Amino acid sequence: MATLPFSLVLLVFCCTVTICCGYPFIRLLHHYGVGKKVRIDGPRSHEQKMGTPTMGGVLISVCVLIATGVATLTVHQATGRSILLPLFVLVTCATIGGIDDLLSLVGGSSAGLSVRVKLGALTLVGLVSALALWLPGGLELDVVYLPLRGPQGENLGIWFLPLAILAVVGTANAVNLTDGLDSLAATSAAWSFFAYGIIAFLQGQAFLVSLCFTVVGALLGFLWFNAHPALVFMGDTGSLALGATLAVVALMTGHVVLLPLIGVVFVAEALSVILQVGYYKLTGGRRLFRMAPLHHHFELLGWSETHVTQRFWLISMVAAIAGVALALI
Q: Is the separation of the CB atoms in 134 and 160 below 8 Å?
């Protein structure tokens, strides 16, 4: 079967499986009391979300694994180690996020994993990913394509390692920061994976096209339950896994330079936190934004949650299209 039609079928299949599995999964979360704590220093309108089931990232990851298994057994039998790396990152980061979510449930005494532990774990995942991509005998992918420079890529050599680690850790944290409004992270991630799926298709990386489209399908199915007012949140289980996997996909296509554009909403959210903290320290307590991450700033300006999400969604869509266009130049 041709790559694109098969991948689109996988997208629909994964979306359908996610929706069908979503209802019993949410009932299971309710049964075991897997409810999310809400930041006490966040907008007051978010207090009503206290106790909403979290760890929806488990649903996303499992459905992606099922669809990828179907694809590997039927069409992409020869993908081998290429498909194992993004799947390893997806499962490992989902596990890290899952531990953090379980430690920070409503009624628990813990606020989750410390920043140092979480950052250390993500850095280790980034290092393993970088080595798997770069080392001889591995995937041997150290090429980075620059926009407007044509099809000739740049071989970074040893410098590929810090770039890859930064991409994995940075994107995982950026998606995590974006996951603060109903459907915001899921819609933004869906457009990003769709863009890289198209880029992979143009490169002839059939297995990567299928992987990206299965993630899109799982996210669309998840949005059935995550649309405002959300019945379930993806939690760190989903956001860390999606962010790190997106970075690995970008590295495998060689178009990691386009990641800040294709994931512009994630970049804006992360930068808002960095700028807020830096400005606060430099000015002795003054704030650059009313609240960070950026989506809370717009909420406090009077935008409704739906307005913020839909406008950020539009930005994600335009940025994804622009990223694909630059990949063609």
A: yes
CB 85 within 8 A of CB 129: yes
Cis-peptide into 293, omega within 30 deg? yes
DSSP code of residue 36: B
Q: Among 175, 76, 99, 92, which Cα is nearest to 129's?
A: 92
Q: How far apart are CA 42 and CA 64, in angstroms?
A: 32
Average pLDDT, the chain: 91
User: Angle, nearest 10°, between helix axes 206-226 and 57-74?
Assistant: 150
Q: Measured between alpha carbons, how far is residue 41 from residues 37, 44, 124, 282 in Å? A: 12, 8, 31, 22
CA distance 327 to 148: 8
Distance CA 118, CA 122 (A): 6
Q: Which of 165, 171, 3, 161 is nearest to 79 (CA)?
A: 3
- Give pLDDT tens digits for 17-51: 999 999 999 999 998 888 876 665 567 667 777 77
Stretch 236-248: mean pLDDT: 98
Q: State how far the Cα of 125 lies from the Cα of 127, in Å rounded to an integer.
A: 5
pLDDT of residue 106: 65
Beta-sheet strands, E only, within the chain:
143-144, 154-155
Cα angle 182, 184, 185 (rounded to 5 degrees) comes to 115
Q: If you search the block for the tokens 């009624």, which residue do you land on?
A: 107
Report d(CA 82, CA 98) in Å as an integer: 25
Amino acid making up residue 159: W
Q: Which tokens go with 84?
A: 């194992």
